[in-house]
Amino acid sequence: MASLTVALQRFSGLMRYITVMFCVFAIAVISLPALAVEPDEILQDPALENRARDISQGLRCLVCKNQSIDDSDADLAGDLRRVVRERLTAGDSNDEVVDYVVARYGDFVLLEPPMKTETLFLWYGPAVMFVIGIISVLLFYRQRRKDQAVIATAAPLSAEEMARVNTLLDEAPQDTPPPAPPQKPSQGKGKTKKKKG
To answer: How far apart are CA 103 and CA 119, in angstroms?
Structure first.
């Protein structure tokens, strides 16, 4: 009974340790995006800084692809954050800053690209590919079911046909291996040797 008590105490201590380590890890992971913006990038005016953060949340890091420039540690993301802040301090509106960045990097820099003819595939491409995949699978199984139905409805061999098959099998030599399939002529890349004559 004493060994069971000691084991339970050790287990509860281990569980406390695991819980504390998990909390430390979770806090570290949650705080990582906040570390992306360097202290020297932060604007003195809180209103401008909030606008810069709002704009930065909508711009894609061109290195990381699925992160905003506000969350990314990449050098290019830092450069784009500085450009956003420079344009804001120069007096540009939020839309003017976004238009400036889009003019330099294209619609891909936006985390939510606009609905245009050039971006229709971005919006509808995954759904179209999914539908094509579902249709392909359905057609495959439909054809397979038809093939199985043809095989199932095939008429069995008549007695005469079965006798002919048995005769052919009896006539075939039993001790010789089956003939090898014909081989294709080799298509060597080198020159063929000519006989001297």
So the answer is: 16
